[in-house]
Design a protein that fits this description.
globular; single chain; 10 helices
Length: about 325
């Protein structure tokens, strides 16, 4: 058994469970910042669908280069790649679990295609709506590395808090400036958000046998291939792009994406897919609120949106309370 698999077999300590909470919240905030950066990059490249996909390819490509260098730099991590290959051949890790990167690619593509039009707040709302509704099902189906986590009233309540919160935020934004284009574009991050729960479960299973760096590398390789294939078609149809902008921070999307994917792969087994998803949702919604209120020239957040952010925190607390009791009962 590999070192990563041995570590995965031991139940997380109380300290690890507590330390995982701010880390999961931080992972969610990374998505909000990444959405802002990738949306701005897409706008500077021309604001078209081709520009949005180009921004996604640039972000995913930079993340791929970084994670490849980090993963291949040590013998232990290179051994993890071989261990993953062996686990796939033996059936310990199903082949479908290697495709989690496609969900990550769809999220980054949705950022480039929609954020400039619908804003970071509504983007985050749509993502979290999809994520919260699918996390409960993913845990119940046992897709994650921790096995099946059955449905329960507290877990359903926690997910309902997240859905209600994003519904309030979406309602405020759409009432303010409703259009069929805005509503239609919001479907893209909604679908991407639903895929994030599956991505976390699949990446967690890969991480359990090969470690989070190998899981992240696999995620970026698969996602990059999928993105380039879609980008190539879009570029043939419309290749009118503006020159690359000079602001260095617009190219940090890949670094933020790597941070989110690594943290998700490492932490999903600590509290399960639902709690991870809810913490990510809270971090993402609160991060988006800060971006809209502090950075955006035209903020789209009012009192309802702020209250919705607080409601996501309530959902996280309920889920953590239930998770803590379940852990004590198991012990």
């Amino acid at each position: 058994m590999s070192a990563a698999a041995t570590a995965a077999a031991a139940p997380p300590s109380r300290f690890v469970r507590l330390a995982a909470i701010p880390a999961m919240l931080g992972a969610g905030a990374m998505i909000a910042v990444q959405a802002q950066i990738n949306g701005r990059l897409a706008t500077d490249l021309g604001g078209t669908a081709s520009a949005g996909l180009t921004a996604a390819v640039l972000a995913f490509g930079s993340g791929l280069l970084l994670v490849a260098v980090i993963t291949l730099s040590t013998r232990a991590r290179r051994a993890g790649i071989a261990g993953l290959r062996t686990a796939v051949r033996a059936g310990t890790v199903p082949k479908v679990a290697l495709l989690g990167g496609l969900a990550g690619a769809s999220l980054v593509a949705a950022q480039g295609l929609t954020v400039a039009t619908i804003g970071v707040a509504l983007f985050s709302v749509a993502v979290t709506a999809g994520q919260s509704s699918s996390s409960l099902a993913v845990d119940h189906a046992g897709l994650g590395p921790g096995g099946r986590v059955p449905w329960s009233p507290p877990r359903a309540l926690a997910a309902a808090c997240a859905v209600a919160a994003v519904g309030l935020t979406a309602g405020e934004r759409l009432v303010e400036s409703f259009s069929l284009t805005t509503a239609g574009l919001a479907l893209l991050p909604l679908i991407a958000g639903a895929g994030m729960a599956v991505q976390a479960a699949f990446n967690g299973r890969v991480s359990a046998v090969a470690g989070p760096w190998v899981s992240s590398l696999n995620n970026f390789v698969v996602g990059f291939i999928g993105l380039v294939a879609v980008w190539a078609v879009a570029f043939v149809i419309d290749h009118d792009l503006d020159p690359l902008p000079h602001q260095w921070y617009l190219y940090l999307g890949g670094v933020l994406g790597l941070g989110f994917i690594w943290l998700s792969a490492a932490l999903v087994r600590v509290h399960g897919v639902l709690v991870l998803g809810l913490c990510v949702i809270a971090g993402q919604v609160l991060g988006a609120l800060v971006i809209e209120l502090v950075i955006s020239d035209d903020p789209h957040v009012g009192p309802v949106g702020v209250a919705a952010g607080g409601l996501t925190v309530v959902g996280v607390l309920v889920a953590l309370w239930q998770s803590s009791h379940a852990s004590q009962d198991a012990g």
